[in-house]
Specification:
By secondary structure, the protein is an alpha/beta fold. It has 9 helices and 5 strands; from the N terminus they run H-H-E-H-E-H-E-H-H-H-H-H-E-E. Strands 2-1-3-4-5 form a 5-stranded mixed β-sheet. It binds cobalt (II) ion (CO).
């Protein structure tokens, strides 16, 4: 259990580090959280949400799952989104995918993995929806990267289609939904420029009015 005892040692060091310049660091953080952002990212251990964007505990509300999906029947994601938007009042929802995503790669192949295949089915749907564009890309690595990007764009649209986001917009709450990609090889974030901040930008079939 040496590996685990090391984690507790790391924790002690972390506490010392945080309280060195601010002895009240934890008591202040414990009072409340006021995050401005909700991050929806991949579970991949190489994509640590807070660290990438240099934010402290309390500044970024985080939800992560395999391949950063936001599905309409997923009670977990819906609960996170509703709490972030309606209670915490976040102003930005960021869907962040990453190049080199194992979930996206598995969805492009036909090998059975397990339960996760049912989850990855949603990425295969993204592929089918964009089949004409994707099949034109002959370079496999580039096609794989493009599917990572298209998946992010699709999930950010899924978020916009929820009653949660549309109710917030109807109440004139400032709320922008963004799609970003993280590059594991360079550490760099890329904005896919697919930001949506009002219902006129979504397909009319998804617009819900009171
Ligand atoms: Co991933």
């Amino acid at each position: 259990m040496k590996e685990l005892s090391q984690l507790f040692k790391n924790n002690e060091k972390w506490i010392l580090n945080k309280t060195f310049s601010d002895p009240e660091y934890f008591s202040k953080k414990a009072e409340r959280q006021v995050p401005t952002y909700l991050w929806i990212g991949c579970s991949d251990s190489r994509v640590p949400a807070n660290e990438i964007v240099g934010l402290e505990p309390g500044e970024l509300f985080v939800h992560r799952n395999v391949a950063n999906l936001f599905l309409h029947a997923d009670l977990n994601s819906l609960s996170v989104l509703e709490y972030a938007v309606s209670v915490l009042g976040v102003q930005h929802v960021i869907v962040c995918g990453h190049y080199g995503c194992g979930g996206i790669k598995a969805a492009m192949e036909n090998t059975q993995v397990g339960i996760v295949d049912n989850w990855l089915r949603n990425i295969r749907d993204v592929y089918v929806t964009n089949k004409a564009d994707l099949d034109q890309i002959k370079d496999e690595k580039r096609r794989y990267q493009r599917l990572v990007e298209l998946n992010v764009i699709t999930q950010s649209k899924n978020i916009c289609h929820t009653t949660i986001v549309q109710r917030a917009w109807a109440k004139k709450q400032d709320l922008c939904i963004h799609g970003w990609v993280y590059n594991l090889e360079t550490g760099k974030l890329k904005d896919l420029d697919c930001t949506i901040n009002d219902p006129s930008k979504i397909d009319p079939i998804y617009q819900i009015r009171d």
